[in-house]
Input
Amino acid sequence: MRPLLLATLLAATAYAQTPDRPITELPYTPGLDVAAMDRSADPCVDFYQYSCGGWMKNNPVPADQASWSVYAKLGQDNQRYLWGILEELAAKKQRNANEQKVGDYFAACMDEAAVENSGATPLRPWLDRIARLKTRRELPALLAELHLATGDGGLFFSFGSNQDFADSTRVIAFADSGGIGMPDRDYYVKDDQRARELRKQYVAYVARIFELLGDPADAAQSQARKVMDLETVLALATLERAERRDPYKLFHKVDRKGLDALMPQFGWSRYLAALGLGSLDTFNVTEPAFFKELQNQLHANSVEDIKSYLRYHLARSAAPYLSTDFVNANFEFFSKTLRGTKELRPRWKRCVAMVDSQLGEALGKEFVARAFPPALKERVLRMTRQVEQAMEQDIKELQWMSAETKERALAKLHTVVNKIGYPDRWRDYSSVQVKRGDFFGNVARAQRFESRRQLAKIGKPVDRGEWLMTPPTVNAYYNPQMNDVNFAAGVLQPPLFDPKMDDAPNYGNTGATIGHELTHGFDDQGRQFDAKGNLKDWWTKDDATAFNARAQCIADQYAQYVVIDDVKINSKLTLGEDVADLGGVILGWMAWKMETAGKTLEPRDGLTPEQRFFVGYAQWACENERPENQRLKAITDSHSPAKWRVNGLVVNLPEFERAFSCKAGQPMVAANRCRVW
Output
């Protein structure tokens, strides 16, 4: 189970259509690309268009993607580079254990003929196990086995490990809501025409899965409607996504008796015994009301209906790793219908992504050795320390915060751990068996390894050196319970961090990103955790009120921005990221001024150093996106659309107004500026 409160720079990284060939050297794109700009646009009217207009014009969304961005381009380059590494290791004769595993895993995934010949056969042992379910009493043990096998919260609920919100040194068991197949509860509860049509298409997809499992069409339709009915009730019992940003709403610690009281007829003892955790007596139940409703549904639905639900969710979770019929059905609904993607990604992309997902640190070790030299790590660490120094200065100078709260804020800042590039200790995959010619088996064994690895953490000290992101990933995150900032080596490549470029765009881009992640420790969610990562109120009442008022200014600002058509940003969902975006660019600016103090800076490419800082910031966000994906992300993504992650910030910055000589009343100059940090 991933930490529930992880704050990332991006929701996800996409990969776009590229020439189908691996590469052995990462291509170079400058950290500030003049060709990506649209100089005909007025930066004081639409800074995003000014910075990214050329890029958007020349980079349409490829057929196999729902969106395409500067981040996605770098992700694609990294993926093609990993492809080259994997082909080399798949063919290499003399290999160490990790090289064998990633090479053979990739080779097995690329063996499409073997995958095609197997059809749905890999699911047969599990389908037979479900078929043998006779009574509800047998369900807990079966569900435990399925959770271990799939790692999928779609099977009624998810169960795993996480840090205790009240004591971050402890790892305890977490039971979290789940049980639905569509991306969010809103897809089940909204009553507009589009939502109703999507529900019909989802039911058709569920029926298609049953048909692929061999059920007659009439039976498949009937079972699909029952699955939809059950998922709808579970969705209604689930907290809204924005509500889940409140950690107090997700923290309900109970003992075994308390767990049994939520679902007295379920049989938690049998479930836990099947997981090998029969002695556990401390749990966090994130959404008690959900589990009470789940108990009702397990009683109200027949055993046969429960079996249908399990069969569908087993096949849904496995569909991307099965034969073409399953893969295409999964693509048609989850990618084409929901996101507007036109074509399935080529197999090599899917296989590289799978190796990275399941054996990520073994593959990441190879990536780091080739693409992330120690000097680059030291340079980024230096920038990180400067950003932290800027935040210290900022906190000390705040007019709205008392000395008492400042002292605690500084204590938290000084305990932040900076993780740059890759873990100090690589994950041990020695117990994962990988075989050529057995792709699904490799997936299943790797998933079981990960499920067991997560459950084994319960009751043990927290591993503060662990990473939740693989080294090649183009992303970064802040973890409030660890109180650490994490930058994967993959995001520290040009154009996002460009060692050949002048400081201004680097501090505008990577400096602001470091500031973004650091600010997450003090956004509306992160600020609720103390220096040790415990959920604890360390604010005076007046300071909390002052913070909330400043955060509300940002929420009110972003609530006015349109995503698409009449859909506006859900600023309750995006508030943490919007606060972090603004704080990040301010801290990046301060750090850049520290770095360049006393230096003579010259204009380049017709831009002053100050203008280069802001264009360097904006160009990380250059993006094109399909309308279907915009609608989906408006519901599910805690980040605002790229345009507003640029224009929504600069309107609040007097430094930007001066850099571009903007005038009061122009669109990029807010009449009432917002600022938290």
In short: The two ends are 32 Å apart (CA to CA). The domain at 42-85+356-659 is CATH 3.40.390.10 (Collagenase (Catalytic Domain)). The first strand starts at residue 7 and ends at 8. DSSP finds 26 helices and twelve strands in the chain.
